[in-house]
Amino acid sequence: MADRAEPRHGPMTEEDLRAAWVMEPPKLAGKVQVVDYDPAWPGLFQREAERIRAVLGERVVQLEHVGSTSVPGLAAKPIIDIMLIVPDSSEEPAYVPDLEAAGYVLVIREADWYQHRCFKGPDTNVNLHVYSPGCPEIERYLIFRDRLRGHPDDRAHYQQVKRELAERNWTYVQEYADAKTEVVESIIARAREGDAGG
Length: 198
Description:
With 198 residues, the protein is of the alpha+beta class. The chain is built from seven helices and five strands; from the N terminus they run H-H-E-E-H-E-E-E-H-H-H-H.
């Protein structure tokens, strides 16, 4: 069964990145690209979801469009984030070979962090995040997505922060992601508190 780990505390170091990436972690060639919302994004997710379900069948416990491209009206990196829940993400032989045969490429393996795996897509720029049932990240992804979908003020604030951070120079995209942690955590906290404002 998948290991239960603590949430990350602080940004990932370059050593952390190298340990997690199956290959050399890619460095940014320029600024992080954040673009206006594209109404084609839900359709791209749907196409990937159908392909993943066709490949894995009943091994798909849950499949969700997450991340900024799943929030109508929100600017985002043009990468479709997908959360896939399988019976046990640590049991790679049960799903990795089939996904690879369909063109997905395993790029991240974090055995010490919720047994997280991440794949890139065969033809659409996707991040396919794989977890096991009961992983706390599942709730975090969904509560954050749903809060942004339903609260325009939080969505606008998050978009502003993303655009400002995208103007900075980063070596790795993970540094940009880590820099968003404070605003992400504050939005999740408000969602958990049931604050109807903001």
